[in-house]
């Protein structure tokens, strides 16, 4: 039983003979109350009952005399005899003191106002309030209560802090009591007031989407699940996921978190359940909504035969080899079984090959059965298909196209006829049909006849496909064999480069003129583009020009590549044809024909002799001289532009001179050399 609080509808002091309503709080408390008046006497207070014990929590008091009164409320539980009481003083003034009383009321009012940020809230919102006190008071103490189920519940005891932040946790019509007193006051409360607020429930959270984002639910693959709710982003929603396997075992995939997308990978096939709990972050409930998804995880995608066909149409003759092909989707490791039912039966058993080559032996009607399954499947098959095939007795050679010729397959122009001829063999009497397609759609066809040629005149530009069909006179099939020929038809004549003429030289040197001339058909309507590259690096691009010649004077050595693009002036594509030409440009021709000339007719010991050197080719040719004396080679002059060497022999005998030559820019030891043997006499 919590303590009761006495409140008045008029603040103390009041006037004589005024009606004052006394109320105890909280009103919801299940106690009986008795109200008493303590009137001032000569020595002590004289107690008179105002209202006897009852369930009423309110009474009306009308004091007849002025003075300092004490109001006491005695209260007890209905089933108890134990009585408790609470008291509060109250002052009554005479009528003549009315003006003074009003002024005192104003002066004694401690709480001037309450500032509250909002009075209408939803669960989880915070109330922020501030007490504005009288400016005459320097220090005041504040106490805060909140109205609860069992009466007033303390929020904060007396302190000088005049601000309060309160978090709402349930939907209700709430009330906060603010009490105030001076530190020196002997009263329990000098002034008080209340503020009323209303707390509403948060909008109901509902799961409105629970989906699996993964297309295939297979073992050892990532399975992604996503949950959606009916709330906007202004609320913080928490999600919890629990997974249950086929044996009922539950594990928590994700505890409450703001992540609404999770990823799971199952290691075994089977049926699973995924439970999702959602709640607002401020909700006091275990969850606000929940949903369950049942999903099945397979070891592999369902196996299906998408196509089962043969490379030959039925009927065929005995002795033919017929290739059966299959296209199967699903599974992880697929096995194939081909069964032939008929005069001669065959069974491949389950094999890994998707193709089956059937060698026909005896005429008759056959059924070819294809069964497929995954290697892990225990049953007979997971999908099955059948084909009926007829084998005839072997007779003449089968019908076969041996050759197709056309008057032109390139440079086709609209409104110009194209002659197509076909050669075929086999059968008894062959007939031919031609079907024309443009961009995959049939444009025209000719009926079967004995003529093995056709003149096809395209009336529009585009890509054409002509199907040639051949059938035997006695065949009941749509055709016995067929083939295709393709044409690309343009509005104009494509450019064609016949030749690229180059100035006739064996060796090109830096500074030489290189001239290219391109020979093209339909010259007036052709544009050419020349792209020049040196050692793979593009150095010039002329763009498309009318000139059929390119003149170039190389300034450095290297590999020169010329890319020549040609197109008709009506061409909308990048080009019609391209050709490429490469050549090497050298700094100079190689040094060759190096010779040594001796100025002296006779070489005498202790006399100077000069050797002159000449050569052909090269650029800024340098020479290096070696002398062999007494079996030893000695370099007597390093590479330089000096083309002679003066030698002073000191002894007689046979000598040899070696001269190495090369162009100055060459990074090699030599390009040419020559040797000369001479004798020094006494």
Automatic annotation (TrEMBL):
Residues 232-294, 330-391, 425-480, 521-585 form the Two component regulator three Y domain. Transmembrane segments: none annotated. InterPro entries: Y_Y_Y. This is Two component regulator three Y domain-containing protein.
């Amino acid at each position: 039983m919590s303590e009761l609080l006495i409140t008045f509808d008029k603040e103390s002091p009041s006037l004589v003979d005024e009606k004052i309503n006394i109320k105890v709080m909280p009103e919801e408390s299940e106690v009986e109350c008795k109200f008493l008046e303590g009137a001032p006497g000569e020595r002590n207070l004289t107690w008179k009952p105002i209202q006897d014990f009852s369930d009423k929590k309110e009474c009306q008091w009308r004091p007849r005399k002025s003075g300092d009164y004490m109001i006491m409320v005695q209260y007890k539980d209905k089933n108890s005899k134990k009585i408790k009481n609470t008291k509060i003083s109250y002052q009554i003034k005479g009528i003549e003191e009315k003006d003074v009383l009003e002024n005192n009321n104003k002066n004694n009012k401690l709480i001037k106002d309450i500032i509250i940020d909002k009075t209408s809230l939803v669960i989880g919102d915070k109330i922020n309030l501030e007490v504005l006190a009288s400016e005459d008071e320097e220090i005041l103490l504040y106490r805060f209560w909140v109205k609860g189920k069992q009466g007033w519940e303390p929020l904060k005891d007396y302190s000088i802090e005049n601000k309060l932040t309160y978090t709402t946790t349930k939907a209700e019509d709430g009330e906060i009591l603010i009490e105030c007193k001076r530190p020196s006051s002997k009263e329990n409360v000098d002034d008080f007031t209340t503020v009323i607020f209303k707390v509403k429930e948060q909008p109901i959270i509902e799961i409105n989407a629970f989906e699996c984002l993964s297309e295939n639910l297979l073992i050892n693959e990532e399975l992604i699940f996503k949950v959606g709710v009916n709330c906007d982003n202004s609320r913080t929603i928490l999600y919890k996921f629990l997974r249950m396997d086929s044996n009922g075992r539950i594990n928590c995939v994700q505890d409450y978190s703001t992540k609404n997308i999770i990823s799971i990978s199952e290691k075994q096939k089977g049926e699973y359940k995924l439970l999702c709990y959602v709640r607002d972050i401020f909700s006091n409930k275990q969850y606000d909504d929940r949903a369950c998804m049942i999903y099945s995880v397979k070891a592999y995608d369902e196996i299906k035969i998408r196509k089962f066909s043969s490379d030959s149409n039925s009927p065929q003759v005995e002795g033919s080899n017929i290739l059966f092909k299959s296209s199967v989707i699903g599974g992880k490791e697929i096995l194939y079984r081909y069964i032939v039912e008929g005069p001669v039966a065959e069974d491949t058993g389950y094999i890994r090959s998707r193709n089956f080559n059937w060698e026909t032996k005896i005429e008759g009607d056959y059924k070819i059965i294809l069964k497929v399954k995954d290697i892990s499947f225990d049953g007979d098959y997971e999908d099955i298909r059948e084909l009926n095939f007829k084998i005839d007795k072997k007779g003449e050679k089968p019908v076969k196209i041996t050759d197709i010729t056309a008057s032109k397959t390139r440079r086709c122009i609209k409104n110009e006829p194209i002659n197509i001829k076909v050669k075929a063999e086999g059968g008894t009497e062959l007939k031919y049909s031609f079907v024309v397609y443009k961009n995959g759609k049939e444009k025209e066809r000719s009926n079967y006849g004995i003529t093995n040629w056709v003149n096809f005149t395209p009336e529009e530009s585009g890509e054409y496909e002509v199907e040639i069909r051949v059938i035997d006179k006695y065949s009941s099939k749509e055709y016995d064999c067929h083939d295709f020929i393709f044409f690309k038809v343009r509005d104009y004549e494509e450019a064609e480069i016949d030749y690229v003429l180059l100035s006739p030289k064996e060796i090109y040197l830096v500074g030489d003129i290189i001239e290219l001339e391109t020979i093209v058909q339909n010259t007036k309507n052709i544009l050419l583009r020349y792209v020049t590259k040196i050692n793979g690096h593009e150095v010039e691009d002329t763009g498309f020009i009318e000139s059929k010649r390119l003149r170039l004077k190389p300034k450095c050595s290297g590999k020169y590549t010329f890319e020549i693009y040609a197109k008709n002036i009506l061409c909308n594509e990048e080009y019609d044809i391209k050709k490429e030409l490469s050549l090497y440009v050298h700094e100079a021709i190689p040094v060759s024909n190096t010779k040594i000339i001796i100025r002296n007719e006779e070489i005498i010991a202790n006399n100077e002799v000069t050797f002159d050197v000449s050569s052909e080719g090269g650029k800024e040719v340098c020479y290096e001289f070696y002398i062999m004396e007494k079996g030893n080679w000695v370099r007597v002059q390093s590479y330089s532009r000096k083309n002679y060497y003066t030698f002073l022999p000191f002894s007689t005998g046979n000598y040899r001179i070696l001269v190495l030559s090369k162009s100055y820019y060459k990074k090699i030891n030599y390009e040419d050399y020559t040797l000369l043997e001479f004798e020094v006499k006494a």
